[in-house]
Amino acid sequence: MAETPLLEIEDLAVHFRLPVPLAERAMGRKPKVLKAVDGVSFAIGKGVTLAVVGESGCGKSTVARLIAGLYRPTRGRVAIDGHDVTAARDRTRALRRRLTMIFQDPQASLNPRWRVRDIIAEPIKAFGIAGDGQETGRRVDGLLEQVGLAAADGEKYPHEFSGGQRQRISIARALASQPDLILCDEPTSALDVSVQAQILNLMRDLQDDLGLTYLFISHDLAVVNHMSDRIAVMYLGRFVEVADAAALFAAPQHPYTRLLLETIPDLGMTGRDREAVAGEVPSPIDPPGGCAFHPRCPHANERCRTERPELRTAAGSAAVACHAAEEGRLPPAPAGGAADG
Amino acid sequence: MTAGPLSGSGRLMGALYRGADSDLAYSFRRNPVVVTAAIVTLLYFFGAAFADWIAPHTPFDPSTLSLGDAEKPPAWIEGGDWSYLLGTDNQGRDIFSTILYGSRLSLIVGFSAVIFSVVLGVGLGVTSGYFGGWYESIVMRAADVQLTLPSILVALMVDGVARAIFAGTDIKTDATFAIYVLIFAIGISAWPQYARVVRSATLVEKSKDYVAAARVIGIPSWRIMLRHVLPNTMGPVLVIGTIDLALAIITEATLSFLGVGIPPTQPSLGTLIRVGQEFLFSGQWWITLFPALALVLLVLAVNLLGDWLRDALNPKLR
Questions:
Q1: Cross-strand bridge partners of residue A7
Q2: Of A238, B12, B184, B263, which residue has the fewest beta carbons closer than 10 angstroms?
């Protein structure tokens, strides 16, 4: 790639050891390992939105938290603008300042005992962005107005706001350190649909104005379709398909992607038959061998049960991890893209 | 702090207004028992703080004592003297004045002991909850072990050991030293409950995303604990602290009553009760009864406040 991507992760993985009761440990039982994220790679260029989608428990939030430095990766590498920040000590103040995070639950992501003004001022003070208290105050006022709140709202406490307003405060705090990259961990999942749209539009406007780059974690394909340039579909700690948003919605390759797209309700009420896929996400503590999706996949054969498919470049810019797609065993993608948000 | 649209005094007034308007203030106002308890407690604080001005006599200045006034009964009993409202002891000291000075000492020891155990327990609790690992195991097991012993026993032990260590040195007889030993002994006997409560609250708060948000921008751990986690764990500490204040005062009185507390030269309420009970069977009941009543009233008032605070801050009982 000619230009250094703003964020690049390579073979990132984190394995959590599950605690074993002392008695069982004494009997020689090995602790079980939960592979929350197991070898994920991607790069995001400046000003681009990459969305990571998947069912709950697939490890998508963990990817964001790994990049934010909240967990230490078991293996792999994270680089911001070419600087390796995998180890905590390599995260210098200047590099930390370039990325922030927006969280899912607007209830828990703001300290209930702090005034909104102090919440937004925290990154400004932490990074020494403003010269003095007065300038900090002016910046906070400006940020509040930028996200559609009033400067006077800074005097209030978080519980005085609605969920959508609180998420605006979260966004203002994220913008306070003037970052390049914002990790958005399901920022709208806890909100009403009408409020979701407002927040998403605000985030897009901010991206246009400030040239922000988003890593957008979501389980909601309609939201993802609205927001992203590129989409990574995640299943049990691994990417199964990565493609440009338009291509993914128009011609999904992986059977799991197709399953996800089938779940989007269509307002046209075409009444077309949908392929119901049975089963639930298997436990990541004890994942199925071979392709992790094979117990639910209608196209699985013996190879799928034994050999794990790697992510291979398929048509255009897409990459798919599926033996059936590689061998051409899959039926053509369902016509007419399920969502046209 | 940053310059907001409100001036400093404006913010203070706002805080006062919100305080007077809060659920807590409402629950306080409509509960006459609690209001009475608060008034009684405040009277004790006032009397203790201004004992030098309020007390009609200076009982610990031997030059003002006269043995002719010794063992006078309370003023309303025959032989009583209205300048000695609650009577005098065997050395002619005014009981009312000694109670004022004694409450001062009891309150000082009680408060200091509570502050000591709060600082120790909250510090250990928040750090063990935040960092976890072997450090947490050691702290919490130590707390468990100490909780198996009654706190009065722990205080008695610590007090005894400290006295044994300093026996023979010339600071041993010093009344101020006895106070420090008491504060340490009582304070150390109560830290586990704070540590436990704060640790569990820290575990809850630490998993919330506002802590994650602070970590992402690189706020140091000590600052996250101090500014983010601690303020959100202080509700239960306030409740335990208030109830504990009553307990600390009782523990101090018990130790003083057993003769390992504050010496009679500068008596606390417990010392007064101990010294007075020697005269109980010779008929001078007032020497021990009035300090005892004073102690009961103080502990009752503080306990009532603590109970109310616990209920008022418990969202499940609202």
A1: A44, A80
A2: B12
pLDDT digits (tens, 9 = 90+) for A248-270: 888 888 888 888 888 777 666 66
Nearest to B173 by CA among B263, B59, B267: B263
Strands A181-185 and A213-218: parallel
Give the residue numbers spanning the domain of B58.
Answer: 31-317
Over residues A86-137, the pLDDT tens digits come to 888 888 888 899 999 999 988 899 998 899 999 999 999 999 888 888 999 9
* CB-based burial, A9-48: b 16+ in 10 Å, e otherwise: bbebbbebeeeeeeeeeeeeeeeeebbbbbbbbbbbbeeb
Domain membership of residue B15 (yes or no) is no
Q: Which residues contact A339 (CB under 8 A, 6 or more apart)?
A: A221, A222, A225, A249, A261, A264, A266
Q: Which residue in A63, A164, A108 sits closest to B212, CA to CA?
A: A108
pLDDT, position A1: 46
Cβ <8 Å between B2 and A133: yes
Number of domains in chain B: 1
Are A68 and B4 in contact (CB < 8 Å)?
no
Interface contact B3-A101, CB threshold 8 A: no
For residue A328, the model assigns a pLDDT of: 81
Between chain A and chain B, the number of residue pairs with CB atoms below 8 A apart is 75
Q: What's B84's DSSP letter?
A: B
Cα-Cα-Cα-Cα torsion B121, A119, B235, B110, nearest 10 degrees, comes to 50
A265-271, long-range: CB < 8 A, 24+ apart: A266/A338, A266/A339
DSSP A238: E
Partners of residue A79 on adjacent β-strands: A8, A84
Q: Is the pLDDT of residue A273 over 80?
A: no
Question: Do the chains contact at A108 and B208, CB–CB below 8 Å?
Answer: yes
Rounded Cα distance between B98 and B81, Å, is: 16
To the nearest whole Å, the CA of A273 is away from the closest chain B CA by: 41
Residue B141, domain CATH = 1.10.3720.10
Q: Which residues pair with A52 in a beta bridge?
A: A217, A232
| Residue A153 CA to its chain's centroid (Å) | 30
Q: Is residue B176 one of the residues assigned to a domain?
A: yes
Cβ neighbours of B216 in A, within 8 Å: 68-70, 96, 99-101
DSSP designation for A154:
G
Position B16 in a domain: no
User: Which pLDDT score is estimated for B18?
Assistant: 66
Alpha helices in B83-174 (DSSP H): 95-131, 133-147, 151-166
ipTM: 0.87
Coil, strand or helix: which one is A340?
coil
Query: pLDDT of A150-170, one tens digit each?
Result: 999 999 999 889 999 999 999
